[in-house]
Amino acid sequence: MGATAEEADVQDGGTIRARVERALGARIAAGLEPEGALLTVPVLAERYRVSATPVREAMLELQRRGFVEPARNRGFVVTAVDPAHAQHVAAVRELLEPPAMRTVAGLRAEAPWARAGAARIAEAAAAGDLEDYLEEDRRFHVELTALAGNPMLTAVVDDLRRRTRLPGLTALVGTRELAASAAEHGDLLDAIEAGHEDAAERVMRHHIGHTTGWWAGRPE
After folding, report:
1. Which fold has domain 5-78?
2. What is the 8-class DSSP label of residue 111?
3. CATH topology identical between 5-78 and 83-216
4. What are all long-range contacts of 9-18, with beta carbons under 8 Å and residues at least 24 apart?
5. Within 13 A of 167's CA, how many CA atoms are on the CB side?
6. Which class would CATH give 83-216?
7. Is the CB of residue 143 less than 8 Å from the CB of residue 114?
8. What is the pLDDT of residues 15-44, one digit of tens each?
9. Which keywords, in A-to-Z order, does the entry hold (predicted)?
10. Beta pairing class for 68-71 and 75-78
11. pLDDT tens digits for range 115-136
């Protein structure tokens, strides 16, 4: 029998701990593991076909990110989404990412890989694969941010994106809103490649706004 999609995520590159964290973190971020869900190490180890040790390590990292909390002698429980925390994360991202895209556009930085990344995001959105959508989205934006030339900024943006939870995302599968937000990656690349700094900053700011709008289950 072939590997499931979740198993494939875990088997595809990186350390085992990081792969489990990425796959499970994306599920929690997208709301596929609901608030209050009990996650146990043995069940997760069986799900991802790995040993218990990397699963425990991944769960501790997800606890640090605020996605889960320990349940004594039972495992870990998915935490509730704190709207105030989500607003705070979005506010910090708005301070950092739009100016970074302005810088990248000013440099007219070359990113030949980025079009393929934008296409993968659109494909995941069309397929309703939220785990892939979130991972490809994170990778796309972190790698674009890296072109600004500030490793500390890149690390902070990556960490903030890993802390972002989007409970309204599951309801967007198959909607024009999800397709539109996916298409914005192409708009951002158009602005960067043309050296349009204002447009790059504007598209990025609008894109981040979805984290407290559509992707949080709220109208825009």
Report:
1. Arc Repressor Mutant, subunit A (1.10.10)
2. -
3. no
4. 9/131, 9/132, 9/135, 10/48, 10/49, 10/50, 11/49, 15/54, 16/50, 16/51, 16/54, 17/54, 17/57, 17/58, 17/61, 18/58
5. 12
6. mainly alpha
7. yes
8. 889 989 989 999 999 989 999 999 999 999
9. DNA-binding, Transcription, Transcription regulation
10. antiparallel
11. 999 999 999 999 999 989 999 9
